[in-house]
Amino acid sequence: MKAVTYFAAFALSATALVSHAFAEPLQGWSGDLDKALAQAKAEHKAVLVEFTGSDWCPPCKMMRAEVFSKAEFVAAASKNYILVEIDMPKGDKQLAKKNQPTVEKYKVDGFPTVLLLDASGREFSRFYASKYPKTEDFLKHLADELDKKDLD
Q1: CA–CA separation, 42 vs 134, rounded Å?
Q2: What is the domain range of residue 134?
Q3: CATH of the domain at 106
Q4: What is the edge-to-edge ordering of all strands in the sheet holding 81-87?
Q5: Structural domains in the chain (count)
Q6: pLDDT band for position 21 (50/70/90)?
């Protein structure tokens, strides 16, 4: 019985640590959309905003592991985009509360949603990230969307 109790305590501790780790922004990503928009203006770039539930959403976890955390994705996407992650974790109520107004402002109704914004904050594309589960497919889609924006 003691072993079960110790195992349960360990599992809860590990879950708390993992939930907190997922709430941390990825390397090369910002968690502040306003700062990202200012940076985008200064650098003449667009903004990629990924809305995620990092500790509870299976497609979000998959995209984080398979695309968004990859150095090659961050390096390539950062050439034309400032990367922003807006996280709505269940394990970090304070972060979710902070990000809720942004979710509401952009009327995000599912996760993982990606918005592409120009430097002034005008949306020019919206899609579910999990539609492009491979780095090369995601990067191709980003390039295509930027090309379409430039035609407007």
Answers
A1: 30
A2: 2-151
A3: 3.40.30.10
A4: 81-87, 46-52, 113-117, 123-128
A5: 1
A6: very low
Rounding to the nearest 10 degrees, give the CA dihedral for residues 122, 128, 132, 135: 60
SS3 labels along 51-96: EECCCCCHHHHHHHHHHHCCHHHHHHHCCCEEEEEEECCCCCHHHH
The model's pLDDT over 61-108, given as tens digits with 9 standing for 90+, comes to: 999 999 999 999 999 999 999 999 999 999 999 999 999 999 999 999
Average pLDDT of the chain to the nearest whole number:
88
For residue 30, how far is the Cα from the chain centroid? 9
What is the DSSP pairing of strand 123-128 with strand 46-52? unpaired
Residue from 147, 63, 46, 71 nearest 113 by CA: 63
Dihedral sign of CA atoms 78, 31, 142, 115 in order: negative
Closest residue by Cα to residue 118 from 48, 30, 25: 48
Token match 């306003």: residue? 34
